[in-house]
Amino acid sequence: MARPRAFDEAAVVESARDQFWSYGYAATSLDDLVNATGLSKGSIYNAFNDKHALYLRTFESYCHDVVAQVATHLDGPDETAVERLRSLFDGIASGNGPTTTPSGCFLTKATAELASLDHEVQTLARRTFAQLENLLFESVVAARRSGSIAATRDPRKTARHLLAILRGLDALATAGVEPDVLADAVTSLATSVLT
Known about the structure:
Tetracycline Repressor, domain 2; 9 helices; mainly alpha; 195 residues
C-alpha cells in the first residue's frame, strides 16, 4: 500500500510556479525546485515524475486561475459590460489587472520561452487564449445588447482584436514598459474599439 503524501501538493505546485514564473523553465534547476518547495529530489520525482511535468502542472494551474479571474472580472449585467471591459484593460495598464504582478505575466513569459519548442506548453497557451477570447466575445455581445457598442461591430472579430491588445499589453507590462505608454494604448482602445 502506498504511503500518503506528507506534504500539501497545492502549496508545492504554488512554490514551484513562483520559481518558474520568476526565472523561467531553463534557468530553474532541480536544486532550485528543492529549495523552493522544501521537497527532496526523490519526492519531486515520485510526486510529479520530472521537472517538465511539474512545470506543466504549474503552468496549467496559472492558466486556469487567469481565466477564472478574467471571467469573474467580466461577469455582470449587459448595461455595464463595456465598463468592465475598459476596467480590465485599465487594470493591466496600471499594473493592477488579473494577469499583472511585479514578476510579469507567467502566461506571457512561458509562451515567449517555450511555446515554439514545447507542444504541451503551446497547447495550454492556445487553449487559454481561446478561453480568454470567448470571455471577451461574451462581453462584447453583452455590450452590443445594451447599446454600449455599435450593433454593426462584429463580436468575434472585436473579441480577437481585444485579445491581441490584451496580450500585447501584458507583454509590454512584463517587459517593464512605462505605465503612461500602456495608458495611452488603453485610451486609444476605449475610443476606437469599445464604442
